[in-house]
Design a protein that fits this description.
four-stranded antiparallel beta sheet, alpha+beta, 21% strand, single chain, disordered C terminus
Amino acid sequence: MKHLTFLTLLALFTLTTSAADGSWIRFRLEPPVTDPWYVAISAYVHVDPWSIGQKIWPEGADKNSASRIKPGDFTPWFDLKAYGGRRLHGRHNRAGGIAEFPNLVLSFNTPANQPQNITIQLATAPETSAIVRELTESYTGNRTSILVSPTLRKDAAALETGSEMSNRRLAWARQASSNIRHSTTNLILQTGLWYAQRPELNLQEAEVLWLLGFNTVGGQTPEIRALNRFQLPGHSGIAFGPEQSRTSIDNQMRRLGERVKQNGTAGSPFNFSDEVVSPAIGSNTNALNNFHAWLKAKRIKPRDLGVATLTEVVPIENPKTLFERQQENLAAANRIFYYTSRFRQESATERFCWLNESFHRHVSTNALTSTLPADHPYFAGTGLGM
């Protein structure tokens, strides 16, 4: 029992120590870089809002040349936890698989075509004795990235530079496919590149997708497009709220056609919107008029909704409002909430039909249009997610 208690206390001490560890990083550029330099730091994460804004390091060095770093010297230590706050996370197990650690993007104010040798040190405190990982990378360009974590001591071995990440993915894809492409012939297999890296890494990522059978890729960089391996999907922010009329939808597509002139190959997909949420009615006059007209067309009786005329119906679009209105008239509130949700579903569906018709009239006759409804906010039967 004493032995077990000792082990338990030791484990708790280890966890407490690990949680108390800091997360620090610093950088050094070697020759052939000759001029004093600084770095712009940004990050992509797997929690909302999915990115962390840019930070110049050393602070103010973009405007004050005296703060810049001489080649061969390290920057001051950069506090990752202070920078990322709660958005600096460990590795997540998501529905689509294991998500990477936060990716710290490093953009140096050096020439884009210059060879560069970088040393990156990660430490649990801003001192040499606390370093848990040192990585080096040599490349041509002024941008790279590195995975980081709030628990460096535990995760240090899994943290990689941009080139190590691309090399790992490509090695896996070659092994998994026996270095032979396997792809569908009658189906679209689509994905997108999330962030442009250096050209040589972009080409490695393209080879990964090619071997895995993808035939449609968004976010292609010029060097990837030059391969002519993938179809390029289209996408545009489209207004499909209940305030839109058939004429306004058609005008949107006419302007889009003039702007993008989408004349891709047959079967090239064009996405109207991802994770569609049935747009709210709110206080928009046109949306309210369309809602009232819809109630009339459905032959809903005003007295069932607690009003004298249908034009008096105020939509209920979230659980909080529903609860408040239920205190005044339970049956009427429940019916209004139901009809509001149903109108928003039907309205969004109708407008996507209009968008599709106008798209093929004004933008492209041979592209395949698509959208992705997000189940709970689109169907909104309970109001959850609205």
